[in-house]
Write a structure and sequence with these properties.
With 165 residues, this protein is mainly α.
Length: 165
Amino acid sequence: MTRRELLWAGVLGLLLLPRGVRAQDPAPGPSGAAPAPPADSSARAEWFRSLTPEQRDELRRRFRRFRALPPEQQQGLSQRLRRWNRLTPEQRERARLRWQGFRKLPPDERQRILRNERHWRDLPPKERRRMRQRFERWRKLSPDERQRLRRRSGRSAPPGGNGRR
C-alpha cells in the first residue's frame, strides 16, 4: 500500500469499517468504537499492521470503492469525514443513536423526513432563520400556551413545523 493509500485508509477506517471489523486493540472508547487511526504516518502504518488480514482486506476493498467514486462524491465524503472527526465523542454517540433510530422507522416515515430535510436545505437562509426563530419562540411557551395557540389556529403542531422533534 502506498503512503497516500495508507493515509486514506486511516481516514476511511474511522467511519467505514463496521465495529466488528475494526481492530480490537487498543480497547474501545466509551462509545464502543475503536479509536481512530493515528495521524502520524509511522504510527498509522503500525496500526494497519495490527489489523487482521481480513480487516486489512476489508479496508482495501473500501478504499478501492472510495477511489472509484466520482471526484465530487469523494470530495463530499471527505468533507463529511472531516466534520465527523471534529465532533466530540458525545456528539458522535448522539449521531449514531439518531441514525439507528432513523433506520428503524418505517420507509414512508424515513422518506417524509428526507423530503422535509431537502425542503429545509433548499430554503433561503433568511427563511430558515425566520423559521428557527419561530420554533425557538414555540419551545419557550408553556404547554398551556402551546395548547391555546393550537386551538386558536386549528393546528396540532408548532407554527412552521410538524410537532415532531
